[in-house]
Amino acid sequence: MSAVRRAVAEEHQLHVETLILPRPGALPRTTSGKVQRRRSRELLSDGGPKAW
Fold first, then answer.
1. pLDDT computed for residue 46 by the predictor
2. pLDDT score, position 30
């Protein structure tokens, strides 16, 4: 994971505090197939990937 954080920092000048790599299909989606970003944030704050 540290290699991913380092690569993001070098390429995009961003600091990655939390990095989660969910399994395919683990993110909640709308009926049209878009990722439900608000619901994903709620799940992250409610316990992270274990809640998914």
1. 85
2. 97
- Say whether pTM exceeds 0.85: no
Tell me the residue type at 46: D
Q: What is the C-alpha separation between 37 and 28, in angstroms, rounded?
A: 8
Q: In terms of pLDDT, which residue wins out, 32 or 45?
A: 32
Residue positions counted in the chain = 52
Distance, CA of 10 to CA of 2 (rounded, Å): 12
Matching residue, tokens 């970003």: 37
Helices (H), 1-52: 2-12, 37-45
φ, ψ at 17 (rounded to 5°): -90, -45
